[in-house]
Amino acid sequence: MVRMLANLCFLGSFLAFGLGTLGLFRFPDSYTRIHAVGMGDTLGVGLLGLGLFLLSPNWLLRLKLGAILLLFWLINPTMSHLVAKAGLIHGVKPAADTGVRKG
Amino acid sequence: MRKQAVLLFAILLAFWTVLVGAVNWPLTLVGTMVALLTVWFWQDLGPRLPRLLPFRGLLRLGYALVLMVGWVIQANFTVAKTLLFSRPAAKPIFLLMEPNLRTNWGRVLFATCITITPGTVTVDVDPESGRFIVHALNHETGIDLLYWRLVDEIIYMENALAARKALDAGEEEKHGMATGGSDRLGVSSPVAGHHRSHGS
User: Fold this and answer.
1) What percent of chain B has pLDDT over 90?
2) How distant is the Cα of A21 from the closest Cα of chain B, in angstroms?
3) Domain carrying residue A73
4) Complex ipTM, two decimals?
């Protein structure tokens, strides 16, 4: 039962990463591609971690996985922000139909 | 300051111990040295870090994190739907917004939450005006961001921390008066000065 749940998590993770990769080809510019990659980085990594968590033989390993996931989810948005900001600073143009709205 | 350094050291050492997965003196010694080195290297960061939230603020932070998990899962499905079924694949917008956040840590927390949610990325935050430039995958995602409940949660935490700071400052002042020091007049006693330098 646990193994089946873990396998479902791995399948979901594979789908999230697959869709993220598809987004790299489908989306029109660098900024939108960051959103696609974000799917793999959040749901993909989360489900992978959950699957490994379920299969872990002891709690120390689970604690390690938790620490690695936490670190990953702290680093990932920082890097995404850096890539987007670097793009804006260096004049990477967004897709032609990108709108601007003041909130 | 000193309290923060000790806390950071304890967290780093605990993280090291969990990752190496064993407690013996050579590993603990190396971990202690690395943790001390890291604390020393980042000592300038200390004064800029927020103080620990009061208990109710921590509860609210936990609640907000649980909500975040739900929002991130929901956003993943929205992006997947856009990716698979939308023609054209995306109608992106740059959104300029000024949420009512007063502290830098609140802004950083909000920017991180925006970026970790697929479909929105914080491109820039102006520390002076608190204006965010956010890139959203489509208009709806961008508009949703303007009414995001997370802003209220962060404002609550900011207020909780400000109240605690005011309380601490009041107690410190009371302590200063009791010992004969007065910060406002700039004639603080050595005792009051000593207390402040270790309490911040």
Assistant:
1) 25
2) 11
3) 2-89
4) 0.89
